[in-house]
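Good morning N.,

You mentioned wanting to compare the apo and holo forms, so I went ahead and generated the holo version with 4'-deoxy-4'-aminopyridoxal-5'-phosphate. This is what I fed in:
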Amino acid sequence: MQPRDLSAHAPYVPGRGTEEVARELGMDPEDLTKLSSNENPHGPSPKAVAAIEDAAPTVSVYPKTAHTDLTERLADKWGLEAEQVWVSPGADGSIDYLTRAMLEPDDRILEPSPGFSYYSMSARYHHGDAVQYEVSKGDDFEQTADLVLDAYDGERMVYLTTPHNPTGSVLPRDELVELAESVEDHTLLVVDEAYGEFADVPSAIDLLSEYDNVAVLRTFSKAYGLAGLRIGYACVPEAWADAYARVNTPFAASEVACRAALAALDDEEHVEKSVESARWSREYLREHLDAPTWESEGNFVLVEVGDATAVTEAAQREGVIVRDCGSFGLPECIRVSCGTEAQTKRAVDVLNRIVSEVP
Ligand code: PMP
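and this is what came out, ligand included:
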């Protein structure tokens, strides 16, 4: 007995985890600095931790399916109707929900290259396909409406990642407006703002009041430090009010996660501290790394190192885990997540030593 032919479905390649690397290299996980998955190095808000502890007894019952407390709170934050907020297990879950809502078999999505791999994975799971526009056409990974429109051929969904993973570039608002006004009526623009809190540019969520072809993804995994709880959301057009119940996975976002997210929203100080720390770290990385880097508005920096696999492996042996961007189609680059001051300085010391030695 075999599953169906899954050869067209490439597995998701995550940044390497501390335990995996520690086991492989026979090291103590405590000695490793993990800067491979763009997590919050300061951890979750203490308020979120308290909410998780308080919510622990709820795990014997199924969570609410409507997640009303959280959707109302988020709707209030962003000036939306509660029905426009689709809570999901991470932004990954939102990608699946939007795919289910949009794609018929053989429909296509248009996505950035290099880019986040789950867009096309989700499309393919749902019997669609993916084509790409090149974010890497210019040396600076600049994102423009023209780059997208040159490749656009009536796809049902167009993904725009801003700040963009793994380059850190942003799509300026006027370019986004141009896209909203240019694409065909049947196309949904999906603005992925997983790293939105770290950017200097405002969110695109307010565009939902003007354009009915825009959806925005956000997550609690990054600035809010709740990656392990799997909680995120999509902001969708007003006319989609009854679609959530038709496309979501039942009970996919736990009550624990929803209550932690609410508590995290209440701790603005923790988010501000986390964002400020990430901004410091990315500037420090850019100033002190002896290798070309790109300006980033995310909580990570893309670094050109030559042989990314060799550098990633050498850094691991020295206790620093970074992301080899070969899986993004950038085999000469690594992505270094923003860390605490000590982590950032350790990464710079280790990487500078390695880059000077690896040909
Ligand atoms: N979008 C982008 C651009 C990402 O980099 C990630 C995670 N690395 C996600 C979405 C998904 O994040 P999560 O499911 O943890 O919310």
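Residues 304 and 333 are 4 Å apart (CA to CA).

Happy to go through it together on a call whenever suits you.

Best,
F.
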